[in-house]
Amino acid sequence: MSQWFVEVAVPVPLRQTFTYLSLNKVKKGCRVTVPFGKRTLVGIVVASHSDFNGTVDKLKPLHDILDGEPVLSPILLTLCEWLTHYYHHPIGEVFHTAMPVLLRKGEMLPRDTQQYVKITQTPETLVIEQLSRAPKQLNCWRHCKDNPATLAKITKLYSASIVKALVDKQLLEVIEKPTINESWHENINITGKPIANREQAAAIAAINQQTGFSSFLLEGITGSGKTEVYLQALEKVLLAGKQVLILVPEIGLTPQTVNRFANRFGIDVAVLHSQVTNPERLLIWQRASTNKLGIVIGTRSAIFTPFSNLGMIILDEEHDDSFKQNDGLRYHARDLAVVRAQKEQIPLVLGSGSPSLETLNNALTKRYHHLQLTVRAGAAVIPTQHLLDARDQNLEYGLAPGTIAIIKSHLEANNQVLVFINRKGYAPALLCHHCGHSVECKRCEQPFTVYQSPPRLQCHRCEKTKPLPRICHACGSNELITSGTGTEQIEAGLNRLFPQYSQIRIDSDSIRGKNKLANILSKIDKQEYQLLVGTQILAKGHHFPHVTLVVVLGCDGALYSADFRAPEKLAQLVTQVAGRAGRASKPGEMWLQTHSPEHPLLQDLICNGYQAFSRFLLQERRHVGLPPYRVQCVLRAESTNAELAYDFLMQGRQLLTGGNTLQFVGPIPALVEKKQGRYRFVLIISAHKRSTLHQALRYGIPNITQLSLSAKVRWSVDVDPMDFN
Hints:
Helix content: 25-40%
Number of strands: 32
Number of domains: 6
Structural class: alpha/beta
CATH superfamily of the largest domain: P-loop containing nucleotide triphosphate hydrolases
CATH class of the largest domain: Alpha Beta
Radius of gyration: 28 Å
CATH topology of the largest domain: Rossmann fold
Oligomer: single chain
């Protein structure tokens, strides 16, 4: 009887594969269940051999072979291998990250069927009588009677509870039919296509003229029509029967993006983000892999979607930090998109109104094709930008008198006003007015954020909550005051200052729930709200045609941050939020309220704009030897014992050899020094050449893993870090 030795990658934090016995050869990319200690794990086969150099008696047999054919395509297998080597991450965890949750759990791929809804044989008169007190259910039943449709479509139009109620009453039934293998590209019906302006047309032509792999940076000011360039560039791809993957940074951007693409081409657009259920995600995964979907739009993890005929990747708002995974496999979807496009030999379009310095440098050095849109589309004009000096001003709810007057003038002109502050809650701290004591989270050693709705204290690092105290626990005084300003306080203040105008607050606390943000954005478009208060959720890509004023608050802290990327991030944020004003026929303006109006960073940004500012930052980075002119890696460690974390990194530093080619900073406390009771330290490693850094990591990490302290602390490797938190 033949015997095969199967190399399996299992989801454990060990940088190796494990060998198991099998009576059959198993194809690379198939899932198997294997014994691992006392557990049974789902792993991915990376190789099968007919011979083995070690001791066969110690090998365990596979439990089960789950797939006859690989669940991971050759491209995805190659990407996972690249991720393992580039980010120096355990291969089993890489495969685990790349797969949908249900495949990780060992579930089978769904049958290639669709669920349809049809009415039962119940006479209509009886249905009307039975549903006389349930008008929504009656409307749903009538729709199914006149328009047979899939369960997914009916559920979107009405709701899952309404459909379930009708099924329970035996007035509807759900049936499964094999999916019709339609050629979706033959059903494309292009509508609402405008004539591109000169700059847009040049960008579209440049993208369409390239064959094979090409990377493009589409640097367009806010409101310049980057999405229209995407739409017209991918038209040629779709008509040729090839698929398109579009990555966006936030869930909030997907509804409007999906609607625009679906309306333009008249075909189904699949959506992948954190609110998509596991069965829905797996079905999209399978349909994309069998070319039954033309367009997939998703957030970061959608980069792992398998396609049978991928023709283009578009990554919108490429500068956004949301594309970087901050735990586990710390990959950057932008960089992975470049690698995937190269391996698929297809074009990649990176779009942004405030591109990251890494991408901008690649464009300026001709590694990427550089396309620019310098004017706003249609009749819209670029908003004017101003600084408002808040020094020595009597602030009301964090607003200077001049700011209040400007807001009033825009409201009286029947326009909408957006007030931006990137801090949720009522205030970032609660202080004793008598002794100065602040109420801190002991696990994180930082002040609790004050909330008014409902009243509570909450730590933004560990999410711990506690009731608002009545007295100071340090001195017993009842004179407790808030310090600083958050979205709740701005909302309360504007309600008192402008009670005649309706307003809405938009932050991660206020938009929880499916479709809530989409519904709010729809009401904003209908001018049901005149005052918009929010965090960076409002800054990203939204089109508000009636907003003529943007007020930016609370940015001064970023001017003095220890993070060298802080100026870049602040400039991107200000540029993006300013771009929400004046996007239609009405002119717009942005006022940044600050206590540092003479700061050179703000002066340069406001006077010269992001384009000039970003080029200056690149020169500054070159002179001081920071990315993108040097490559970095961060070795992180955390422990309830600060000395253990520090000592581990010190020992790790000694094992990372590179002569004078490596530069070290640390170990030093992370910018977020303590979180959830754990002290956090970082060791920053940099080099001029990427190959030098990776060689040092390749030889050093196995030795670091063997350190006795490695089992006593939590540690991770972060290649190309975006922060030092």
